[in-house]
């Protein structure tokens, strides 16, 4: 019995199945896409500075250099010079103002409610003290007084060593109508009296004497006369015994051999 072997069955070829290593590999971006993405990221994250591209000559000055440079400010306007005057202004708590005017070295004047007052300065030559008496509207009868306290020479020396320059004084108002006035003139009298006393003590202790004007230097009369006579004697001929025996003098016969 003979067996006949037929043609082999047809075989279907399939591509090999992916291996486990190929299936678990992560997805990779193409090289061209990765390079373009990195270029874009670097473009937006780091912008080139225009300051570095400019030359030092064309670079705009920074605020640091402006702050370090000295600022140019306008010169302050000069203050007006304060000229000393003979008026002292007093201002009270009720906004009242009183101007005490110094008149020479003998009186201090002020006005209050339409009336004029004056502190007159009086000097006692026997004791060497200064007192003040207040007169009103030019009348002779004073309405207030400031009189220094009488002190012994030892008290004066002790006060001088202690640096005192205002003597202790008594002040009183002799007119009862002034004390009872509703215009508060008593307060003004006390304030102006203290100002007059202190100002007078300041002027007496620290008053700067004005320097005397320098007179042009004139030559002394005796010196001028002496210099004039010296010049005259120098240019005028002087009589001398030598001239009397001189051979050049005419009027005498001289024998010549």
UniProtKB/TrEMBL annotation:
It comes from the Eukaryota. Residues 1-18 have a biased composition (Pro residues). Residues 19-47, 63-76 have a biased composition (Low complexity). This is Uncharacterized protein. Residues 1-80 are annotated as: Disordered.
